[in-house]
Design a protein that fits this description.
Blueprint (H helix, E strand, L loop, with lengths): L10 H14 L7 E7 L2 E8 L5 E6 L13 H6 L2 E6 L18 H15 L4 E6 L1 H12 L4 E7 L10 H7 L9 H12 L7 H13 L13 H4 L6 E6 L7 H11 L4 E5 L7 H4 L1 H16 L2
Parallel strand pairs: 3-4, 3-5, 5-6, 6-7, 7-8
Antiparallel strand pairs: 1-2, 2-4
């Protein structure tokens, strides 16, 4: 069996990879490019921080690539963590899905099992944004003994659904003849204007959306409340105040109801995609404090 066929990079894909490397070069700490082989293909991890630090696995949102953590990784590495920013398999980035298809949620979680095995991370803390937060939550439910603590940044499909208006605006992303311009319009609408997004990341997202070989996105239903109650790791949920993806306060209420012991907060003056960027000071501080507090318990 094989995954998505590997094709020669187009001119636009080459531009995407150049933009990826340029954004990675902006990380204010030395970054080690790590690749591990799994049954599904080759996974790229951008690692920084002390090698003997506690592993902190970062899972980006759909199409965002692991470079999206440029405003966060240094702060968490500086707090003593071995930061492991993963490019999701089958998504735009430097991971290559040239192995077996994921075949659904079990395959996706099995891929992450294999990545952690290859990294020697028998236990790690997880931090995910958007779709990456959903993966992180599903993984914590799948392998609770491997997750020390769990940070969810504006998570989608974890505690509540999407706004209907958001789905209407996102629909063009899934129509034929994908173009960078279509992706830019979507990002600008969701973030309240292009000035609210890092321009280098905005362009990287647009190029990757339009022309990067990718697999079908693996999704699943929101975890049922009874299933959420079985969650073992401590949880931090940070929500973007002006997210168009969902109603932040409704999601906050749902998260508190489902996980009464979780720490839940709304980060002011942030939108869904720019939460790790515009909200970096608040996000970095709260995630670092959450990880430190959990380490002492």
């Amino acid at each position: 069996m094989s995954g998505t066929p590997v094709r020669p990079p187009s001119q636009r894909t080459a531009a995407f990879l150049a933009a990826y490397d340029a954004l990675l070069a902006r990380w204010p700490v030395p970054v080690e490019a790590v690749t591990v082989r799994t049954a599904h293909g080759t996974t790229r991890i951008n690692a920084c921080g002390p090698r003997d630090g506690r592993p902190l696995v970062l899972l980006h949102g759909g199409g965002a690539t692991s470079t999206t953590w440029f405003a966060n990784a240094a702060a968490w590495a500086g707090a003593g963590h071995r930061v492991l920013a993963v490019d999701l398999i089958g998504d735009p980035g430097r991971s290559v899905h040239d192995g077996a298809p994921l075949g659904g949620v079990p395959g996706l979680l099995g891929w992450l099992d294999a990545v952690l095995d290859a990294l020697g991370a028998t236990e790690a803390d997880l931090c995910g944004h958007s779709y990456g937060a959903w993966i992180a939550l599903e993984y914590a439910l799948h392998a609770p003994a491997r997750v020390g603590r769990l940070a969810l940044l504006d998570p989608t499909q974890c505690f509540a659904g999407f706004r209907p208006g958001y789905l209407l605006h996102a629909l063009p992303l899934f129509l034929p003849r994908r173009t960078p311009a279509r992706a830019r319009r979507y990002l600008d609408w969701e973030s309240g204007g292009s000035g609210h997004l890092d321009p280098d990341w905005r362009e990287l997202y647009a190029l990757g959306y339009a022309d990067f070989p990718a697999s079908r996105v693996v999704t699943g239903p929101r975890p049922a409340p009874a299933r959420l109650r079985t969650l073992v790791p401590p949880v931090l949920t940070l929500l973007a105040e002006h997210s168009h993806t969902h109603d932040a306060r409704r999601v906050a209420a749902a998260a508190r109801s489902a996980l009464p012991t979780a720490t839940v907060a709304v980060v002011p003056d942030t939108a869904h995609h720019n939460l790790p960027m515009t909200g970096a000071a608040r996000v970095n501080e709260q995630v670092a404090a959450f990880l430190a507090d959990s380490a002492r318990t």
